[in-house]
Design brief:
Layout: E1 3-6, E2 11-16, E3 23-24, E4 29-35, E5 38-43, E6 48-53, E7 60-61, E8 66-70
């Protein structure tokens, strides 16, 4: 079952924690966003394998943008 991870706010991508091919459990951090000088971890809600990371560190994302895809 594919899960698309989307941005919940306008932010900058601070860092990427997971890599394509990683198996991740519920609660694992995929990446960290930065907004208004706060770091916001983006965590997995359904365990799976990282199929795609759609952003790079330094990118600016808007609400609803795809950040990653899990299988």
């Amino acid at each position: 079952m594919e899960q698309t991870v989307r941005a919940e706010m306008v932010a900058s991508v601070h860092s990427i924690v997971a890599e394509v091919g990683d198996s991740v459990d519920v609660g694992a951090t995929l990446l960290i966003l930065e907004s208004m000088k706060m770091e916001i971890p983006v965590v997995v809600e359904i365990a799976g394998t990282v199929r795609e990371i759609s952003v790079q560190a330094g990118d600016t994302v808007s609400e609803g943008d795809v950040l990653a895809v899990l299988d």
